[in-house]
Model the fold of this input.
Amino acid sequence: MPPLFLSETGERIRTIEEWREKRRPQLLELFRTHVYGRAPVEKPAGLHFKVDATIPGLFSGKAVRKEVSIGLSGPGGEGRIKVFVTLPTGSAQPVPAFLLICHLPPELIDLRESTPFWPVEEIIKRGYAAVTFYTADVDPDEHDGFHNGVHGVFAQPGESRSPDAWGTIAAWAWGARRVMDYLESEPAIDCRRVAVAGHSRGGKTALWTGANDERFALVISNSSGCTGAALARHMRGETVEKINTAFPHWFCENYKKFNNREEQLPVDQHQLLALIAPRRLYINSASEDAWADPEGEFLSCLHAEPVYSLFGLPGLGVTAMPEPGTELHEGHLGYHLRKGGHELGLYDWQRYLDYADRHWQ
Done:
């Protein structure tokens, strides 16, 4: 396993300051170079927000929804991310929020409705804002040569892609961070308490979002599997070669060098989880979701725990993988193992909300 506390120069990391100033930046750079790729721009100049519609009286008068456009521009043109922000009515103070990275296309889910995948009404009832966007607004989930979405907007004319150029997962994470830029301008949101969440490929995106952006106080991964929460070296279910073959656009070109060579990766996913410390992290697995390697996800949590310990924070509180139906909600590392398959449903959301209630209310 690649070490948490040994720097690239062989220096032992022993303090919080050394972790923050030396090891954390090193690990981020390694993940950018070898796995997710690097974005060509952080917060772009000219980023702007426009409220397109305000719909009051939702859920028997308990909520109001704002539909917001985030406008951006670059060398390759312009883009727009549409954000749905549903706020509970009657709160005298700014409210915490859950931001869902929705990888499902509009034809499969209407984000204006409350569904088991996106239970807006339940989130509002608990006193949280419910915020979401379609990843397709940021970048299409297809191998299009990186000509469309934000890849096209920020591509320099005539410039070839480097082997560490950002893939689609990194682009979606970049989009989630721009949504956070908007939330910081929304007076009804308590930006000190914003959770970013995603399922499957959205869960991979949530983890990379949270690793890069320390504004998110809670990062939630729902069955994210390979190149999400699961250890690459565990090699159960989906592997690096399988994910790069099926989804060649998700990661940077350098990542393909490690097809069937996981043991040569300079990083592994426990280090990605550790990058979220000292903020809260919640990992969910499903007992019958073999493709996402629930055991590998649990082991990744265990191997990330030493960084939480460095900060003096409690982790999972167990060392053996629990039985399905178990919730671990006491520490800064939250976890539950649901009986069933690869899905995000109301049961999972209720666990995430319970965890937030416990630590934020």
Notes: The chain has one domain: 16-360. Strands lie at 48-57, 63-74, 77-88, 95-102, 129-134, 189-199, 218-222, 280-286, 327-328, 333-338.
